[in-house]
Structure formats: structure tokens, C-alpha cells
Design brief:
The chain has 63 residues and is an all-alpha fold. Helices cover 65% and strands 0% of the residues. It has 4 helices and no strands. The termini are far apart.
């Protein structure tokens, strides 16, 4: 499946990159700063996508 199809399906290339990275590394915990660095996207956009995924119940915050 090509990236543009996934981008359109999920609404954002940053969201696709975050989801792919998290699913591939499901056993680890990440800060938003670390995640942004790993997916090579700006912190603000990564934070926005993570917050959306958290609101949807796909990811959760670990304290």
C-alpha cells in the first residue's frame, strides 16, 4: 500500500508515521520528544497527533 493512500486514509502523514512507529515498537514507552525525533517530524505536529490518538483511545499516557 502506498504512502499517499495511507496519508489520505488516516488524514495526516505524521499520524501514519507515529502509528507505524508505535505499532512496531509496542513494547516500549516513549516521550513525545523522543517520538518526534524518531519519526523525524516537528514536536508540535507529533504532539497534536499523539493527543488525537490518546483521545481516540489508541494510545495512553503512562505516568
Amino acid at each position: 500500500m502506498s504512502k499517499p493512500i495511507l496519508d489520505n486514509l488516516f488524514g495526516s502523514k505524521v499520524r501514519v508515521k507515529v502509528l507505524k512507529y508505535l505499532f512496531r515498537n509496542a513494547s516500549r514507552d516513549f516521550s513525545i520528544h523522543e517520538l518526534a525525533k524518531r519519526v523525524q517530524e516537528p514536536f508540535d505536529q507529533t504532539k497534536q497527533e499523539v493527543n488525537l490518538l490518546k483521545d481516540l483511545g489508541i494510545v495512553r499516557r503512562k505516568r
